[in-house]
């Protein structure tokens, strides 16, 4: 199935970046504002899905040569690993730490280990959603 | 801390093996692997002096505080012996595998499984917490499954793997139930704490059940009658695996468990009868069956079953000392336990060596059938020597270590004859006779290994490959074990004082100061009854071996041919057919049927509980008025929902479904739940994309024709489901059955440093749930991928039935 919709293709080129930026923004702002790993991951994967819908799979694969199964695996590893990390510091499993640091450009910034956990969640969501959609669409 | 780490080192190493294997795709990968067990062996061996002085090491990582599950490692004399066996035999087995397995095998996979097993086994013997122990216990079953099925293209390998898995895992689950019973009685999962407090609980009704269930786990794992049937089939595994798992370590996990739980249950007579009875019977049965085998590996498998029975029965006899309490008279019975531990070590040395020898014969000649072998002595002198040492030690002859432990076994039995618990002398005598007959047959099959394989005439045409002595590398590992067999005979008290004494103290904590807890092991006691028994074994055994062809016919007599394997297979078939029938009753293959089940259950469960708790009174007094925009959204949703029933095309239905989803998102916005709104919008988008993808695969959309009765029935279900949801929604506001816990989360900025409560719940307060959800999501993704990508194509060759 080949679609050749010029308008859709042109719009997608710009929109995909907006969606991706929005996804990252949602992911980063999650702790204090609406957003977080799950939503951020879903937004990112919807951007990828859009790319796959507009262009065909081979073209996108040339541009984004990731194996999304591995991305999902890395995500799970990060999420579980951030829990194990706290055990190594003698805390309970999955205890998260946070603190406020004075960084040169950003001013006083809150840094938290929960970001690692959320990154794991986001990566898993992206990996799994794209894997499922790609697998089904390739099975023709 | 370092002890805890030593459990994880094999697992960590297993992660890196595939990476190394990509670079070095040759047999030399084994040299990287062997570092792990050698280092661990040296590390554990460094504890020998301090453990021998009576110290123990404990380290706890707090884990799940609320249910008392902690990662506690405990190193005492008993776990040290097993730890040394696991790492020591492990090193030799890997050394042997380097030369045994050809480079065409997938060595990376092999070593990963082997390391997995090693870590799991160390976990079993070093864990103090019962739950942690259980997890490692099942992990050994799983890694054993993987190793038996290593050559998975063979039908027999898969059968053996499945059989061993089914039997040992069912036993494991029984054991888990036993552990939970113990916890509910004593309130602790820690073995040490249970040992300290068990005295108060022995009269509880659960106590005896807990004991029997734990024993079930031990018996299945250690291949005791009637669960021994998995071990001969497990011999389909590569020989190094058989040497390691199915003779030296994994099958001894059950024995470890019995030893570890002796201080807990040992005071009961039932324990003595169960452990010793099953042990002696297994000993007899195993040795009788071993004689009739023509496959050398099967012979060794039955011999292992029999020897495990021997050790088991000794542990049972040793528990008598605990029954009678500490006194100078009762210490005599602890000798049985001492003999058990000693034989355990000896068995690992001689049986390991024998397995490796059989592996060499198989590797060099391509067969291990004794009817085709013979006269190998002249061609394989080194192999022959090792086989001779191993077999004679197994038969209980001097100057090999098996002689010492066999003598002690007889002595323990002779002592037990005077026990008061054996109400009459006859039971004690019966056990003694049974054990003696078993020893005679042990002697016979040991002779079969040596004489039928290595003596007689060699026929080149009967074997597959030209005969050669094995390569030097392959001979190193069995030679080391054979050397140990002799060294232990001459210096048994080194083992006794440094390894067995601390283990004895671990099993008999109340006897700690006793002088005679560790007897001085002597090869020569003068002509006592035990020695006469050994002489009798040798004489009768030689006669039986000489005239074997005259009496072998008894094995064809019906009662002896009847076996448990047939029963197991029949049971398995029956179970499969039964569950197939049961599943077919309700799995019709129609989506609408499944929806009916789900909704009926929902109506009964939720509707029933609303009726039952009487919470269907509505209270609208606190509700705010409904704004006009909310009204419009709900109206649109109702319209979309109704329209969906009547539309003619699937595309329209999907779009209407989308209208529903996005309207809900709008409602979330109106009620100021931005997180939910965002999630709902994106989920809706992605789902729609998925729907569109699946379009291609879906069949023609047509109305289903069903009878009037079904329609009415389905209509009633649909309407009741709607009513239940509506009532639920309305009733939620008016009825507060519990205090709200949301107050706790409102403090999120101080507790978790986040202003977004939803997010802090997901990432901080309930992070464990989120983590598991992520894992489930990942498994689902992998599941979709494997189901679609790896389904077998029609033109592909079917590798299943070879």
From TrEMBL, chain A:
InterPro entries, alphabetized: CPA3_antiporter_subunitB (IPR050622), MnhB (IPR007182)
Similarity annotation: Belongs to the CPA3 antiporters (TC 2.A.63) subunit B family.
Membrane topology reported for the UniProt record: Multi-pass membrane protein
Domain Na+/H+ antiporter MnhB subunit-related protein, residue spans: 7-131
Transmembrane segments: 12-30, 36-54, 74-94, 114-136
Protein's name according to its UniProt entry: Na(+)/H(+) antiporter subunit B
Subcellular location: Cell membrane
Record Pfam families: MnhB
Claim: Transmembrane helix is one of the keywords in the record: yes
Primary localization class, coarse: membrane
Lineage: superkingdom: Bacteria
Keywords: Cell membrane, Membrane, Transmembrane, Transmembrane helix
């Amino acid at each position: 199935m080949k679609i050749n919709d010029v308008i859709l293709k042109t719009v997608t080129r710009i929109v995909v970046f907006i969606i991706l930026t929005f996804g990252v923004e949602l992911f980063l702002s999650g702790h204090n504002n609406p957003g977080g790993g799950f939503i951020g991951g879903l937004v990112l994967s919807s951007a990828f899905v859009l790319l796959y819908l507009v262009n065909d799979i081979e073209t996108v694969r040339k541009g984004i040569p990731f194996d999304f199964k591995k991305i999902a695996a890395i995500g799970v590893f990060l999420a579980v690993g951030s829990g194990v990390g706290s055990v190594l510091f003698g805390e309970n499993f999955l205890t998260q730490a946070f603190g406020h640091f004075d960084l040169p450009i950003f001013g006083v910034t809150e840094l938290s280990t929960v970001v690692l956990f959320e990154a794991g969640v986001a990566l898993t969501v992206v990996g799994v959603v794209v894997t499922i959609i790609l697998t089904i669409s390739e099975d023709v | 801390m370092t002890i805890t780490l030593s459990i994880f080192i094999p697992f960590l190493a297993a992660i890196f093996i595939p990476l190394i294997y990509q670079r070095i795709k040759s047999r030399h990968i084994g040299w990287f692997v062997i570092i792990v067990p050698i280092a661990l062996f040296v590390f554990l061996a460094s504890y020998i002096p301090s453990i021998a002085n009576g110290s123990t090491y404990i380290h706890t990582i707090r884990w799940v505080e609320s249910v008392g599950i902690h990662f506690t490692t405990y190193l005492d004399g008993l776990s040290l012996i097993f730890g040394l066996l696991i790492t020591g035999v492990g090193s030799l087995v890997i050394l042997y595998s380097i030369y045994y397995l050809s480079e065409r095998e997938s060595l990376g996979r092999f070593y990963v499984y082997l390391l997995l097993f090693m870590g799991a086994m160390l976990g079993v013997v070093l864990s103090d917490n019962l739950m942690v122990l259980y997890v490692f216990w099942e992990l050994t079953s799983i890694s054993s499954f993987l190793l038996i099925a290593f050559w998975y293209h063979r039908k027999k390998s898969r059968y053996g793997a499945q059989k061993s898995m089914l039997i040992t895992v069912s036993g494991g689950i029984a054991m888990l139930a036993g552990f939970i019973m113990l916890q509910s009685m004593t309130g602790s999962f820690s073995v040490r704490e249970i040992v300290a407090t068990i005295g108060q609980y022995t009269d509880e009704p659960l106590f005896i059940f807990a004991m029997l269930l734990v024993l079930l786990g031990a018996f299945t794992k250690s291949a005791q009658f009637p669960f021994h049937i998995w071990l001969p089939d497990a011999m389909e595994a590569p020989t190094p695996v058989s040497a390691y798992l199915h003779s030296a370590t994994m099958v001894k996990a059950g024995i470890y468990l019995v030893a570890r739980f002796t201080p807990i249950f040992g005071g009961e007579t039932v324990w003595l009868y169960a452990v010793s009875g099953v042990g002696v019977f297994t000993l007899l049965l195993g040795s009788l069956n071993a004689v009739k085998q023509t496959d050398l590996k099967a012979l060794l498998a039955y011999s292992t079953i029999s020897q495990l029975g021997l050790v088991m029965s000794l542990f049972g006899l040793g528990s008598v000392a605990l029954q009678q309490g500490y006194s100078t008279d009762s210490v005599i019975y602890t000798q049985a336990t001492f003999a058990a531990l000693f034989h355990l070590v000896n068995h690992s040395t001689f049986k390991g060596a024998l397995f490796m020898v059989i592996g060499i014969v198989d590797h060099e000649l391509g067969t291990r059938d004794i009817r085709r072998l013979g006269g190998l002595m002249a061609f394989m002198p080194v192999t022959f020597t090792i086989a001779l040492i191993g077999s004679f030690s197994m038969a209980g002859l001097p100057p090999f270590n098996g002689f010492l432990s066999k003598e002690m076994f007889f002595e323990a039995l002779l002592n037990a004859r005077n026990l008061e618990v054996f109400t009459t002398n006859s039971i004690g005598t019966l056990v003694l006779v049974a054990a003696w007959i078993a020893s005679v047959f042990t002697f016979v099959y040991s002779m079969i290994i040596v004489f039928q394989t290595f003596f007689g005439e060699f026929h080149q045409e009967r074997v597959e490959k030209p005969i050669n002595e094995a390569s030097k590398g392959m001979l190193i590992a069995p030679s080391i074990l054979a050397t140990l067999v002799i060294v232990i005979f001459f210096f048994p008290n080194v083992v006794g004082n440094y390894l067995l004494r601390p283990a004895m103290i671990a099993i008999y904590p109340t006897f700690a100061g006793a002088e005679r807890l560790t007897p001085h092991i002597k090869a020569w006691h003068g002509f006592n009854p035990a020695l006469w028994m050994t002489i009798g074994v040798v004489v009768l055994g030689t006669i039986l071996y000489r005239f074997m062809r005259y009496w072998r016919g008894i094995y064809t007599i019906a009662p002896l041919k009847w076996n448990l394997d047939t029963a197991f297979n029949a049971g398995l078939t029956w179970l499969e057919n039964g569950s197939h029938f049961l599943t077919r009753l309700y799995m019709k293959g129609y989506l609408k049927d499944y929806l009916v089940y789900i909704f009926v259950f929902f109506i009964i469960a939720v509707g029933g509980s609303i009726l039952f708790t009487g919470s269907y009174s509505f209270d609208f007094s606190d509700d705010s008025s409904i704004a006009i925009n909310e009204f419009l959204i709900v109206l649109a949703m109702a319209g979309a929902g109704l329209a969906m029933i009547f539309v003619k095309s699937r595309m329209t239905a999907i779009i209407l479904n989308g209208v529903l989803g996005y309207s809900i998102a709008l409602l979330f916005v109106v009620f100021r739940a931005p997180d939910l709104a965002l999630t709902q919008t994106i989920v809706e988008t992605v789902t729609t994309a998925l729907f569109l993808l699946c379009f291609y695969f879906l069949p023609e959309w047509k109305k289903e024709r069903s009878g009037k009765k079904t329609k009415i029935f389905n209509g009633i279900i649909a309407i009741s489901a709607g009513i239940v949801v509506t009532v639920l929604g309305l009733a939620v506001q008016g009825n507060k059955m519990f205090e709200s816990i949301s107050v706790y989360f409102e403090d999120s900025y101080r507790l978790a440093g986040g202003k977004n409560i939803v997010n802090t719940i997901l990432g901080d307060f309930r992070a464990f749930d989120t983590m598991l959800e992520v894992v489930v999501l990942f498994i689902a993704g992998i599941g979709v991928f494997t189901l679609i990508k790896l389904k077998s194509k029609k033109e592909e060759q079917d590798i299943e039935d070879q």
